[in-house]
Amino acid sequence: MSRFQPDPDALRLGEALAALRRDRGLSQAEAGARLGMTSQGWGLYEAGRRPGLFRPDVQRRLTAALDASPEDLALAREGLGAPPDSGAADAPAPDGLEARGRGFDTPSPRVRRLQISDDSLAPWAESGVVVEYRPGQWPRQGQGCVLEMIDGSVRVRLYRGADAEALHLAGAGALDAVETVPRRQTALVSAVVARLDG
């Protein structure tokens, strides 16, 4: 394979790494920073263009930065399905949602998008930033979340924790202040899985 044509297996493994990162709500820059590398360096792994992606020690480092394991990476890779058959000349060309690859413009059916309309979450996310969230997926501490309230309003906050009666969140004016929202007022809590900064 040429330097500009990654191995299909490396592409699938890179896509699985990208899926794990998005599930954790991290940007490439945030994931790379956890290992002391740039977003471009991390992006090369996700694109299947960086050597060592199949090495167990490299996989342990990359997945540890995502609070995951090499087993999680293998499961994510399995979830992507079979690699595309590049030699099937008579197969119909995939289109729409059937197309394989990195569809950044169209979120998967299980993911929704919401544009933030104020700066209450700055510097985590500012007005105009679009977040992708997975309905019903519970957030981890420090992860962004979207709350769909009983009254129909929607709030984007940072999840700090919960107890039997309430959710404890940050972002209603100051990231260091904790807002308490009674569980009975929330219809659905969803984890932010990606931030689209522009």
TrEMBL record:
Q: Which PROSITE patterns match?
A: HTH_CROC1
Tell me which Pfam families the record gives: HTH_31
The residue ranges of the HTH cro/C1-type domain are: 17-73
Q: Which intervals carry biased composition (Low complexity)?
A: 81-96
Query: Which Gene3D superfamilies does the entry link to?
Result: lambda repressor-like DNA-binding domains (1.10.260.40)
Q: Which domain of life is it from?
A: Bacteria
Cited CDD domains: HTH_XRE
Give positions of region: Disordered.
77-108
| UniProt name for this protein | Helix-turn-helix domain-containing protein
